[in-house]
């Protein structure tokens, strides 16, 4: 057996028994996945996943960044190649280095998928690599492992993708037109047209104008084009936006100041400080639009993107070389909050890669401003220890109900059930400790376990 039935539960027997009871309450609840990076194309086409390497290894930066740190070349993993040449060889490299993931959340997610989905009981290693590859490959060729079948098997109720404003959303339309009864929703991610440092920014803004028939060379036309695009996303079920900015800085410039800054940014004449000011202004503009159209706003700041310049130049964005940075929220969000912080009809979900802000900044902010909620531990902190630290540091000020449950934020589709299972177990363990310490009655813990697993995420994301 790869995974123990009591994994992540308290070691103390009494608290463990409480955690078991709480977990039974939530174990089979449907999964709400309100933010992630799976592809709508998978479900529109409903074709078999190609092979284990392409399914597990090549799309998952958690995996290949660890392998790269130990000297495995990305070329050997065939990262960035449209057509793998030798997937079995890639898988054998992964399997021979599987020991590197001991004690990591990646190991928990993978072992869950290997055992629960594919029935594999022996640990992955160099010796079992071919057994795994052949077993997984054979099952991927069956109807039970087609994307739509897995969606049903995972008990997914909602699955949100992350989409560029330049995306025509044809795959989302195809899913709807197929009459398949599933909720695959787009999420509006405007980074390509609001971040001056995004490759091809000016060309992207021009394309936005072409698709919306607005004059995006002017500030007013640019804002109208963004509003139109948000409406197009909403028509296909979108309930949220997502903003991956380097910082949480916001600004509230006058129309004239914003227009002048936009002209400079679009012309490519803005320095780094002006580019950051433009991103800051755009967060406030997005909050204004969310108040108007009802889309929930997610802010994912604090990642220094593409830190490894050599890898970025060779492979492009999102190749596992992003590093967390210290992030300020109290002063950074003040301009936006001065304008919209007291709006009860606006929801802004804050994420962080800087754990030092949990009790000092984020929990007090979310524990006061009606528009703010705290997103779950994300990315580098999407781990049992990270989830425990979040609950311990945020709950005392923000409580549970200023948080939004869990989201997996993953490209690795088959990891979704395992990730949600980890989150549910950790929350049940935390609640069990409160019950065992007589800080919470068990009936309250039962309600909270349900809310943290299912209720809060549906409410926060308007699902």
Distance between the termini: 36 Å
Please write the string of helix (H) and strand (E) elements: HEHHHHHHHEHEHHHEHHEEHEHEHEHHH
Structural class of the helix and strand makeup?
alpha/beta
Number of DSSP helical runs: 20
CATH class designation of the largest domain: Alpha Beta
pLDDT under 50 segments (min length 5)?
Answer: none
CATH architecture of the largest domain: Alpha-Beta Barrel
The major beta sheet can be summarized as: 4 strands, parallel
Principal-axis shape equals: globular
Total E-strand runs: 9
Could you explain the architecture of this structure?
There is one protein chain. By secondary structure, this protein is of the alpha/beta class. The protein has 2 domains: 13-48 and 143-460, TIM Barrel (Alpha-Beta Barrel); 49-142, uronate isomerase, domain 2, chain A (Orthogonal Bundle). It contains 20 helices and 9 strands. The strands form 3 sheets. A 4-stranded parallel beta sheet has the order 4-5-8-9, with helices on one face. Helix 17 (357-366) links the parallel strand 8 and strand 9 (372-374). Helix 6 (105-116) packs across helix 19 (416-436) and helix 17 crosses helix 18. The longest helix has 22 residues, at 272-293. It starts with 12 loop residues before the first helix and ends with a helix. The mean pLDDT is 96.
